[in-house]
Amino acid sequence: MKRVLLLGDSISMGYRDRVRELLSGKAEVCFNEGNGCFAKWTLWQVNAWIRENGAPDIVHWNNGIWDMMIEPPLEGNFSSVSEYLFQLGRILQVLQTAGVEKKNILFATTTPPRPEKQGLDAQTVAYYNGHVKLMMQREGIAINDLYALVFPHVAEYVCDDFLHLSPAGYEACAQQVARAIEALL
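The structure corresponding to this sequence follows.
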């Protein structure tokens, strides 16, 4: 069986066990136990994971919420778009240096928050996602558009903290992630 590494922030943490379940018997699904948080932290995690476990066959990965967030007293987003893209590029470099082929890397867009969320809005997420889609397209990396999946159902798929997903949202994302990975098996 192929080994699949799921990388990402708390959104991926919410669907990863269900993805493992959906791909049971088809792939070995692995992940870091902790939150990937912002892109630079995920860079550290994936580097350590590969050093300890070797290269996975397939990687499904997301980052964004932490990088895009505005949390006073810090002014502005935690990471500028250019900083965010730079760190994502470094993650790609680590994956490719380890031997993961571009055709086996999937990047998931950041899911939108509900309008009530302080410090992050759907427009900012769409803006960052737009830049990362262009970058990944240039790099030949496939996009799993979780933003497009969640946005039309944001009231149902995003929970009462206005940021994380509801059980229905995590299930919808898990199904889409599993289908995207299954296409590469």
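The chain has a mean pLDDT of 96.
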